[in-house]
Amino acid sequence: MAAPILDIRNLSISFATPRGSVDALRNVSLTVPPDRIVGIVGESGCGKTTLISAVMHLLAHNAIVRAGTIQFEGTDVLTMTEDRLRDLRGRRMAMVFQDPMTSLNPVVSIATQMIDIQYRDAGSTQDKLQRAVAMLRKVGIPDPEQRIQGYPHQFSGGMRQRISIAMALLMNPALLIADEPTTALDVTMEAQIIHLLRQLRREFKGSILFVSHNLGLIAELCDEVVVMYAGEVVEQGEVRELFHHARHPYTRLLLECDPARIAATTRRLPTIEGSLPDLANLPGGCIFAPRCPQAYGPCASEAPGTYAVASGHTARCFRVRDG
To answer: Which residues make Cβ contacts (< 8 Å) with residue 157, sequence separation at least 6?
Structure first.
């Protein structure tokens, strides 16, 4: 098999805070193969944004990388110089941020912003403008020759997100990171953005790391899925295999909470009882044990390892180990 575009191994990250160290990520491992879409799913606070910030090397100043490596195209991002990182971002690795309302500069025209991000290329300003117009046309912006001269406030949220995607893909990166790109959009525009990402993936032949808390989007768009809980990867595998044969109790409960799976009309939506643990004061044993309806003997005192469910499908649960 071809070498992965992104290979994260045993990554542990903490944040120094006034009340002590917050262990945001612990022994996280995942890979993004070439020409694949890998989804990361989990509740808010499970570490998704910290993980992708580490991949882009955009962590906050109080972040401490305790252990692990982030290999992008064979080179560890964590050991790169700032000059190397600046050359990498935007060209080989790009990100679509969560909120389209704030990810664009409100006082600079779209044309200027899209020309500026091509500063590494030696072409003329007119060539760069034409390339930007062509990219806006690809992402479905009507009349791009005229609209590119506008400002962000003159576009709807969905259009701004399309522009953000166009800017991210302008340099044809090997890896596109999408951080919950549909959160601020209505369901109709959400479906359009997902369709757009799927279409662009075929055209640009790059890999996508797609972050979401929406299981329906993950199932529709992704080839593989990584389930995170409280800073740990608790289950991962091919999307169809995992959705049909989920083994970790947390993954099963997430699936049960998906409104699309509710067959009968009800006034009460299913929820996962309890709340995320305090990452500054982690419980002993399995991280999910305090909320797990299937916890037993070793769960309270011993942290589970990663056990194989099937080929390419693993879960961190003693019930997988014990059958």
So the answer is: 100, 101, 184, 185, 189
What stretch of H or E contains 110?
Answer: helix 110-116
pTM score of the predicted model: 0.90
Q: Name the residue type at position 213.
A: H
Instruction: Name the nearest CA neighbour of 169 among 220, 98, 117.
Output: 117
8 Å CB contact between 15 and 202: no
Write the DSSP symbol of residue 170. T
- Going 106 to 107 to 112 to 117, the CA torsion angle's sign is negative
Asked if 206 and 248 touch (Cβ cutoff 8 Å), the reply is no
Query: Could you tell me which of 252, 240, 211, 261 has the C-alpha nearest to residue 311?
Result: 240
The answer to whether the beta carbons of residues 225 and 41 sit under 8 Å apart is yes
**297 Cβ contact list (under 8 Å, min separation 6):** 318
Q: Per-domain residue ranges for the chain?
A: 6-92+175-268, 100-172
Bridge partners (DSSP) listed for residue 227: 41, 235
CATH superfamily of 6-92+175-268: P-loop containing nucleotide triphosphate hydrolases (3.40.50.300)
- Render each residue's pLDDT in the chain as its tens digit; 323 residues: 678 999 999 999 999 999 899 999 999 999 999 999 999 999 888 999 999 999 999 999 999 999 999 999 999 999 999 999 988 998 899 999 887 778 899 999 999 999 999 988 888 999 999 999 999 998 889 999 999 999 999 998 888 988 998 999 888 899 999 988 877 677 777 777 788 888 887 787 889 999 988 888 888 889 999 999 999 999 999 999 999 999 999 999 999 887 777 777 778 878 888 889 999 998 889 999 999 999 998 999 999 999 999 999 999 999 999 87
H or E element: which one contains 307? Answer: strand 307-310
Looking at residue 89, what DSSP letter applies?
Answer: B
CB distance 81 to 75 below 8 Å: no
The pair of structure tokens assigned to 244 is: 């049909």
